[in-house]
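Predict the 3D structure for this chain.
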Amino acid sequence: MTLLGALLRHASNVEQRITLLLNHWDCIKTGYDITLACGSPYNEVTEKGKHPKIPNTPYNKALAEKLETEGYISTQSPKGEEIRINTRRR
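Done. Predicted structure below.
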């Protein structure tokens, strides 16, 4: 297990996990690794054909923007208290 993997495993909440992921983005192999580290509903973010919604928080907004910029998702749409993730088509 990598040091980053250990830190993610022991992070006490999703905000800490996402913050770690964003700060160490270049050390991570794929967007799939990123979302698996955070559990549900984040594990659906890079599944093709899904439209998961995540809470609209500053750290989730940063994650959604990074995933869109890096091409892991098609688009992201903040609406009220949620961010709708539009994944790539099948």
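Helices lie at 3-10, 14-23, 31-36, 58-69.
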